Amino acid sequence: MNKIETLEMKEISKSFQGVRANDGISLKIRSGEILGLLGENGAGKTTLMNILYGIYQPDGGEIRINGCRVSIDSPRDSIEQGIGMVHQHFMLVQNHTVIENLALGYIRSPMLFPQKKLRQRIATFSNKFNFDVDPDKKVWQLSAGEQQRVEIVKALVNGAGLLILDEPTSVLTPQETRDFFQILEKMRRDGQMIILISHKLDEIKKLCDRVTVLRKGRIVGHADTKDLDKRSMAKMMIGRDVIFSFSREALPRKDKVLDVSDVTIDGDKGFPVVNGISFDVYRNEIFGIAGVSGNGQRELVEAITGLRTVSRGRIRINGVDITNRSPRKIHNTGVSHVPEERIRFGIAPNLFLYENAILKQHHQKKFSSRLFLAYGRIKAHTRKLIEEFQVATPSINIQTKNLSGGNIQKLILGREIAGNPDLLVASHPTYGLDVGATEYLRNQLLKRRAEGGAILLVSEDLDEIFELCDRIAVIFQGRFMGVLESDDPRLSDIGLMMAGTTHLTTGEGADGSF
């Protein structure tokens, strides 16, 4: 395999069912560069990188490596050409060791004893880039940052000269993010090419030499990042100015809506993953839970919304015990839920948009007439919903899976807010969304707070937590490390709290009670 010195994509076009995802896109990257790829959800970034990685075939255009045209018909062809991709959701087998995962993905793996050959290569890359990867650990034993390093090593052992990184810091703690940035800087100095897909403009500004901005399948700008600030990058992305700081009006807490008392919840393997957590959420309040994925927040949300059984403790809504009730009964008490995985749990992808607009509400009188659905009223409700929540769609009569991620999330949030719930449980509501959709959804949460709603917000985005929340709890291994007011100076230690090294054992809010 020859070393990649330059890579060009020239006039790349791709359509899906008549819709142009990429329209004559050209970009170039050289050895030792980090190129940032920016764009709204649905702008065509992922499609373009899937073409480069061999998952899709372009309708037109060409790819050139070191000036020579190449054909990339599959991911294996891409790997053979020296291109590696680290996906947003890691492609690792959890019950296998690190070295077993690397052997599975190693295209030159010998028939006999592949692990022996790989150990030396792992050691080489670990020393070179300070990866500190234990080849004999099971993947499930690793933190998100360690798993990400395994994915990078997996690409490097196959000889990748170009790395495509898709939202690489979305599951990392602040400390892991700093370590990751140092790794990328070392790789750049070593001559590695990197294409970084990120919605975090600060990351693009800090790490990238150049940025290419896509909008609606076309390139709207190339620039050196030293010549741009965050605001100008955002304006290139969505064509207007974006608000980066939100004014959260000070509101007095009113009635208690959610009361979680000494709750313990078992995980999928039968062991407790939430251990004796207690907290309250009030009207006119956004209560935030910050933490790295996998520390019990998903199970806690599922228990509150009726998707998982509580093994000990009580959950009450407006004084009514809802512990271990069905999701429908909990929804009927005034609880709405924006789930973490919007495609898997927030919508039925193959149903039409107007059908998804009334999920969990179809049995209500306003949408049904005895045995039959009232489609006229349903469609009128849907049209009002997409107008109020700015859902970009050509029609309400299309399958919901054809919407972009941001528009699906707007639809879900609109559906859940439309019934004026007493408690809105929102899990990672802006995860993976562009700055425009993020701005809109955060404003909707603040609006619901001002209307008297109580909001439980679970997020790994610390900017989101700090901007929106009145109180912040930090969760680690199923326990709250502390619950603090948003202006508490001790929140400067939130990174350490997320990593489990700082625990507030004294003072108001240490156990989640006030």
TrEMBL record:
**One CC-aspect GO term:** plasma membrane
Q: Does the keyword Amino-acid biosynthesis apply?
A: no
Q: Where in the cell is it found?
A: Cell membrane
Keywords, sorted A to Z: ATP-binding, Cell membrane, Membrane, Nucleotide-binding, Repeat, Sugar transport, Translocase, Transport
SMART domains under this entry? Answer: AAA (SM00382)
GO function term, MF aspect, one: ATP binding
Assign the protein's first listed, main location to one coarse class.
Answer: membrane
Q: Which domain of life is it from?
A: Bacteria
Q: Which residues form the ABC transporter domain?
A: 7-241, 258-502
The record ties this protein, via Pfam families, to: ABC_tran (PF00005)
Membrane-spanning intervals of the chain? none
How does the entry describe its membrane topology? Peripheral membrane protein
Determine if Membrane is one of this entry's keywords: yes
**What is the protein name for this chain?**
Heme ABC transporter ATP-binding protein
